[in-house]
Amino acid sequence: MTSPRTPRPLPERRGKASPTHLEQENAQLRHAVASHATVDQAIGVLIAVHRIAPAAGFEVLREVSQQTNVKLHSVAETVIGWALGEPLPGRVGRELDAAVQRRSRRGHDSGQDG
C-alpha cells in the first residue's frame, strides 16, 4: 500500500525580515543585476574588438581586475567607456592588452584562430 506523498513544509525563518533589511537586500540585488549587465556589455566590446570568445572576454576582465586591484564592474565600466571614446587608464590599458594577447595566443596556438 502506498501513501500519498505530502510536500515538506518550507523551513520557517526565525523572525520576519524587517522592512529595512528587505530594502537593503533589494538594493544589493539591483546592484548585482546592474553590475552583471555592465560586465556583459564589456565582454561584448572585447568580443567585437579583439575577436575573442565570450568566456575569454570574461577571463580578460577578471585578470585585469585582479592585476590592477580594481573591482570587476569598475574594469567593465572602463572598457565600455573606452569603446565610447574615453581613454583607458595606463595600468588598466597595459593589463588589458597583456590579457588579450594571452587569450589571442592561446586561441591561435590551439588552431581556433580562423
Describe the structure using short key phrases.
single chain, 114 residues, mainly alpha
In helices, the fraction of residues equals: 55-70%
Strand content: under 5%
Return Rg in Å: 21 Å
- SS element count, helices: 4
CA-based shape: elongated
Question: What's the order of the H and E elements?
Answer: HHHH
Alpha-carbon distance between the two ends: 64 Å
Q: Residue-averaged pLDDT, rounded?
A: 84
Structural class assignment: mainly alpha
User: Can you summarize the main beta sheet?
Assistant: none
Query: Using DSSP, what is the number of strands?
Result: 0
The residue ranges in which pLDDT falls below 50 over 5 or more consecutive positions are none
Structure report:
It is a single chain. By secondary structure, the chain is mostly helical. The protein contains four helices and no strands. Helix 1 crosses helix 3 (72-83) and helix 2 packs antiparallel against helix 4 (90-109). It starts with 18 loop residues before the first helix and ends in a 5-residue tail after the last helix. The mean pLDDT is 84.
